[in-house]
Amino acid sequence: MTSPPPFEPRRLTLEEYRQIRDSGVLENGSRFEFLEGWIVTKMPQGPEHAAVVQIIQELLAKTLPAEWRVRVQSAVQAAGNEPEPDLAVVMGPAERYLDHHPAGDEIAAIIEVADTSLIKDRRKTDYYAGEGIQEYWIVNLPDRQVEVFRNPLRESAAYQDQHIALEQESLDLTISDTTLSIRVTDLLPTTK
Questions:
Q1: Which pick of 18, 68, 98, 188 has the fewest CB atoms within 10 Å?
Q2: Whole-model pTM?
Q3: Cα separation of 100 and 75, whole Å?
């Protein structure tokens, strides 16, 4: 067993992280996100995870209002963190984000697909609620359910409404003045 280092690690600021990221030091094929002052390695994706992300992206892209876009595995700004959620529904056009990552009211919903990352994805509720993101869904592959978080309380970084949606249910996702009805089974497909 490896013992902890004999020194105190220091958390980074978001600006320090961006300088490190932009310097190219982290360019070794790994993907990272910035969470709570730490540079965190992203989990590799298995086939089911990758396929479900693609399925949800296609489902959302064909039903979203014209002024909204789906970003896939791209950074967002959330309460001093820079996570890279699997999917984010953001205000368009894409050129809007040439100089910054989406944040706050620019984000209508965030969806994470979780298999091995479930604990980390649940922890992100604090960031997204603190940023005022109205909808946060965790598509929980092992338990075949969707964990839905709604109505953020920014000041306490928590969601007022939490719900576990099972396979037989449908979920409503309201974006601008459009409400999309999405069946949980469409988010949790099975192999044929």
A1: 98
A2: 0.87
A3: 10
